[in-house]
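Feature request, filed as a ticket because there's no other form

It would be nice if the structure record came with a short human-readable summary line next to the tokens. Right now we just get the raw output. Example of a typical job, pasted below so the devs can see what we mean:
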Amino acid sequence: MDFHYFYILFWIVSYIIGSISSGDIIVNSFTNKNIRTLGTLNPGASNIYAEISPKFGVIVFFVDIFKGALSTLPLVLLGYASWIPAISMGALLLGHMVKTPWGKYGGTGMATAMGAGVGLLPLGALIGVFPSFLILLITKRPSFTGAAAFLLSIIGGWLIYQDLISTISILIAASAVLIKYQSQYKLIKID
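Raw output as currently delivered:
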């Protein structure tokens, strides 16, 4: 197996991208509020939507989706073996979910993991968009919507690509989001 330094560089860049809190940056740039002291204390899109404004919540959601896709989609489009973007997604989520070198924890990583999943299984993720949006409109609960989006992406992605590594990687990412969600909010009543 030939191994390129490019992989390692891409994984390091993915970790750094993941460790940058777009929620903190956007809220701090446009308001005089600290999102980490409001609502669920999470710097993610859902808390920003509820505590700052829907506009900023939507912006953070799409920036985090973009961050996730940036870590996987270029590698998939360049035709690299699926384990390479899968590790890139892992590095991204590690940077996002664990205390960073700059001393802050990221959010639950739902939007970031969704973006990485879009990169790994693009058509599978596309299948989940409309039903997930309907679930959001009906339930008004981002946590249910995220779970549905992951599930639909995994099933759709498997049926289209039958790529076991990418499918399992998204399943692991979704599980990591759930674990982070549970641990982050066990003392805070949410939803």
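Something like this underneath would help us a lot:
The chain has nine helices and no strands.
Residues 5-185 form one domain.
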